[in-house]
Amino acid sequence: MKQSKMKKFGSIFLASTLVAGVLAGCGTKDDSSSSSSSSSGGDSGSSETIKIGGNLELSGAVASYGSSINDGAKLAINEINAAGGINGKQIEYIAVDNKSENAEAVTAAIRLAEQEKVVAMIAPATSGNTVATVQTANQFKVPVVTASGTSETVTVNEDGSINDYAFRTCFIDPFQGIVAANFASNDLSSKNVAIYMDSTSDYAKGLAASFKEQIEKNGGKVVAEEAYVTDDVDFKSTLTRIKSANPDFVFIPGYYEEVGLIVKQARELGIDVPLMGADGWDSPTLVELAGADALNNTFITNHYSSGDPDQTIQDFVKAFEAEYSKQPNAFHALGYDTVYFLKDAIERAGDDITGEAIQKALAETKDLSLITGTFTVDEKHNPVKSATVLEFVDGNQEFKSKVNP
Fold it and tell me: What is the rounded distance in angstroms from the CA atom of residue 55 to the CA atom of residue 146?
């Protein structure tokens, strides 16, 4: 998903103590506590298991994202292990909490690669935290796959070069912006739109840019552009300026913490036109902050919907509900898909269970059918896949449509 909300750090240093704490069970090890412990020693590099790491936001500002990915990943791993594993070997999953911070994400990546000897990692949920780990991935030749880091910078550098060991299972930001603009134009007949974005987030800025370009191609007009910054809580002055521009649609790319308050305050000011965002809205906390009524007539682009009638999706929903007693959101589904993406590549790598072989197989993935869509990995290590448009109705997400690339 997203460029990390935390400020970029000036220099990366290694902490003298590592996040650890072991919770064993079902072939997994969650190192998510703040206490320290040594690595598993004799298990490292074991020929009896395939070690996969999880470098995730299990606490901190975006813990909702990382914890959801982790739950989806564990469900997939349990299924695979129960069915005999990968090429006869069980997956050993080692999850480390990066605390929603860039520096912690780097520390976790080094630990997983150097000490735990994983052959692949589920990368952080946010783009910024994932980008911070790419150098480690390249150095140790361990593929990292982000389930929700949608910024183009995850896999492609500013000079156009590809980060060889970075992949993703989500679509990228420009695609979401285009889908949102086309939905506004074609489904809602919007002509005069406003954009209200987080100016401190590359995620939000990228979405806003692609939305604006496409809405103008569609013949629409941007009548207001306003910005807020991360951790703002009072949005009424800028929302008042947006209201005075009389838009018939407002695009709000951002994260649920601020968006929930924006939606609530917008409705209080009498802005009753459709509001729309992207996958950064997808958290139960959004409903708590905004209120179910305020969220009526709002929409998001997302990676999947539990309401999609596709039988494969409904089978996943039933399995997830049986395990966790709740409906899976898009981040659950993406975490689940990321494990199966790795499984497919490891199987095709055969007996060569090394980071180099898995990286090659990931890059060669074609027509892989997963919960969030069937995709082929392109030359920039992005999956070419569909997007889903969802509507909030009385606090619940309802499936509207599926949009192909």
Answer: 9
